[in-house]
UniProtKB/TrEMBL annotation, chains A, B:
Species the sequence originates in: Thanatephorus cucumeris (strain AG1-IB / isolate 7/3/14)
UniProt similarity note: Belongs to the NAD-dependent glycerol-3-phosphate dehydrogenase family.
Binding positions for substrate per the UniProt entry: K121, R280, N281
Entries under PANTHER family matching the protein: GLYCEROL-3-PHOSPHATE DEHYDROGENASE, GLYCEROL-3-PHOSPHATE DEHYDROGENASE [NAD(+)]-RELATED
Entry-linked SUPFAM superfamilies: 6-phosphogluconate dehydrogenase C-terminal domain-like, NAD(P)-binding Rossmann-fold domains
GO molecular function, one term: protein homodimerization activity
GO cellular component, as recorded: cytosol; nucleus
Glycerol-3-phosphate dehydrogenase NAD-dependent C-terminal domain span: 204-355
Protein name: Glycerol-3-phosphate dehydrogenase [NAD(+)]
Domain of life: Eukaryota
Length: 357, 357
């Protein structure tokens, strides 16, 4: 059996943290993987030098995950076509808005038998349609795509603090790589699972991908509650209601998605928790209440102009629900999602967050 | 239809907060309830006066919920037999260790058609047997007993901060009070549900009762994690694993209990969250790590000698699992529960909390 060759497409905070995990595992499973991992780096200057050459010299992503050794077997490569050459295991971890641009034209250069896993947070919405990134990647590249997500703040993972992550794979039975090849589950499990980064496998790619995006709307709700000085009864109620709304939303509109992914797995309940305790959507929402400023203004002040995912996702869900209102059978609709949207975009006072819940 | 007469057996922090809720609701539903509520007060002196007479004068439980008006229709009564006279709706909210003593001999003085609801946190264990308090109350009094539990810190409920609570009722179909009487669900829902205290009803009395007790073991785990300075990935993982362990434990040993009660309801996921964010079990566990002291010493220092429920419950679960080890089919047992027990009672270093998870 030929060894799997790994390429990480993306080199931000999370991409770098996962590169370190993968770099250790390809060595521990040298029967399965080639030792060298390539990491596609969107080239930029840092201290007057190209970031990719600094990474290759210091084995550290000084810009996005400083102070952490990635492993000397991680090779940064600014040319994507070169980076993916011969790669059979592609980890896609670029910001969601760049996926289509980055992967454009890549299909023709893929190695035979290549597979992908998406670590992307976010969904693509177009009125009454929502697409998850594993599906988009699968279409763009013409290959199978799994999903990985969980309560995984990159800096904590980089310190080997104990955590869990959920791997969503397609149903077995269609092995495009010959009957002796590894299953998707085995491939990605061996590449990611560590003593302090525990992988649990579920047969639910879209569930994993959706959780990681929709949780940010709940985190905004939790942040509004914090900003208003409400106590932990209220915050816990908002989180519980939020879990149920995104679970019901996804199960309703994505019939293959499983409730358990939301209620029982790290990508669901645990990631939602982390985001509601310490995420940046929570923080900005808290500050919206305390300062009276809109999220756009706080994005500039606190995030250097980076856009916050929660409001964007709330807007996508709102537009989706408007377009498909006739299909919503849940008796009370999705009041928490709609209230978060109204607070972000319609000037509704945050105190009204609990209205209609 | 004769009106229901309410008696609250217990007058601590939570008993007083729920008295205030019930006092408002009996007025709002005067077609169902008599206006006067009695509250059994275990008599004690406060500022040289009997507590029950201060409550009746000021309509405030100055000792256990000071600064909060309970309502002038709450009548404190130190004689339990007088308190329950004519009462058809008994709210039992005494500390679990006193239930059997307090209710001894009460059966003979009950009004016809009386029903109970248990707000008690805790379980009674005897080696290989665990009993929930709704079951114990039902046996002691010979009447039906429901359960109420949720993310309900008393002081926040007393301020009308938005929260939810779960009402567990027995299956319908056996109406002991005549076919025209209210169902258990309708009786307790009308007595407890408020715009800021939202009741959801489930057909799972034991599930509600068990969540409220077993959550404290998870809260200890979360507190150890906090004390060790571990981040929110780890804490979220511990909470997720904890939810799954107590769910699996209860579903396995109490076959009528429903998974959803743990995964979807306020008494489950939301109450666990609150306890892991701000409960006193969490706090003492954090301090155990930071000071190196045992929980017994911290109970004296921080809780004025009151005993903490988490360690006690961990011990009960440990003894139970020892006694019924042959029946445990879960492949890895219950490592979080066992590790918490070992840290509390066996001197295991808290760093080992994640071992075997």
């Amino acid at each position: 059996m030929a060894k799997e060759k790994v390429c990480i497409i993306g080199s931000g905070n999370w991409g770098s943290a996962i590169a370190r995990i993968a770099a250790m595992n390809v060595k521990d499973h040298s029967d399965i993987f080639e030792e060298e991992i390539t990491m596609f780096v969107h080239e930029e200057e840092f201290d007057g030098k190209p970031l990719s050459s600094i990474i290759n010299e210091k084995h550290e992503n000084v810009k996005y995950l400083s102070g952490v050794q990635l492993g000397s077997n991680v090779k940064a490569e600014p040319d994507l076509i070169k980076a993916i050459k011969g790669a059979t295991a592609l980890i896609v971890v670029v910001p969601h808005q760049f996926v289509e641009k980055v992967l454009d034209g890549v299909k023709d250069h893929l190695a035979p038998g290549a597979r992908a896993v998406s670590l992307i947070k976010g969904v693509k919405a177009d009125g009454g349609k929502i697409y998850t990134y594993p599906g988009i990647i699968s279409s763009l590249l013409g290959i199978r795509c799994s999903a990985l997500g969980g309560a995984n703040i990159a800096t904590e993972v980089a310190k080997d603090q104990f955590c869990e992550s959920t791997l969503g794979v397609l149903p077995e039975g269609t092995k495009p790589h010959g009957k002796d090849s590894l299953s998707d589950a085995d491939l990605w499990y061996n590449l990611f699972n560590r003593p302090t980064f525990r992988i649990r496998v579920v047969s639910d790619v879209d569930g994993v991908a959706l959780c990681g995006s929709l949780k940010n709307v709940i985190a905004l709700g939790a942040g509004f509650s914090d900003g208003l000085g409400w106590g932990s009864n209220t915050k816990s109620a908002i989180i519980r209601i939020g879990i149920m709304e995104i679970k019901d939303f996804c199960v309703h509109f994505f019939p293959k998605v499983k409730s358990e992914t939301f209620l029982e797995e790290s990508c669901g309940v645990a990631d939602i928790l982390t985001s509601c305790i310490s995420g940046r959507n929570r923080k900005v929402a808290e500050d919206m209440v305390k300062t009276g400023k809109g999220f756009q203004e706080l994005e500039k002040e606190e995030l250097g102009g980076q856009s916050l995912q929660g409001p964007q996702t709330a807007e996508q869900l709102h537009n989706f629900l408007e377009a498909r209102r006739d299909e919503v059978s849940r008796s009370d609709g999705f009041p928490l999602i709609e209230n978060v949207w109204k607070i972000c975009y319609e000037g509704m006072p945050p105190e009204k967050l609990i209205e209609g819940l």
